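Feature request, filed as a ticket because there's no other form

It would be nice if the structure record came with a short human-readable summary line next to the tokens. Right now we just get the raw output. Example of a typical job, pasted below so the devs can see what we mean:
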Amino acid sequence: MENYLTLTDIKYDQNALNDFWELIKPKVLESYNFQSDAIQNGIDKTEKWNGRRITNSELIDKYLGFGYNQCSEIKRLLGLFNKDFQLIIDDFCFVVYEPGFEFSPHIDEGRKVYVAFPVTPSDGGVPINFYEKIVHEDGGIQCGQLVETYNYSTIHPTLVDVTKFHGVKNDNNWRVYLQLDMGCDVENITFEDCKKRLKEDKFYYKGEIYEYT
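Raw output as currently delivered:
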């Protein structure tokens, strides 16, 4: 089964995203509390999913006083996707892993798929790892053996199925990705839904860019 799909019809400007990250990085790293064990063991429940999401509201309210709409490349990317998703700027966020951080194998809560845009390091950094999902007779699930690793494209975004067990073992670099959640129905939209919309040309606009208001 597929775990990811590289969206080769779309190109993104990694340098522009990195420029925005460099702009906000000093304040984010000064203020953010990177506590790997606390977050992974469920002690800190204030952050959704992985505790390293720098949300639009956090940028505005906690860090900088402005958000992702100050990045022209993110605004451009927002306009590429079909209006039926009802995307807003809040559906984007940077996910920041500090050097040496290991994100244990997991299945995401609150979403089934997202789009990833590697920002730094320039080569995309360490790969994402996918693991076997073992389903027991009683309906319980368990993480099994490593089945695949994927090195993200740094030219095209990647659609990622996060109903599969996945994780990251970071190296000694800061690893920053822009992630896009798929709009107002994020909890229900699946990887297969997105593939179907791609086949029907209902996922993004290949010609004109839809202007969001």
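Something like this underneath would help us a lot:
The longest strand covers residues 141-150.
The chain has one domain: 4-199.
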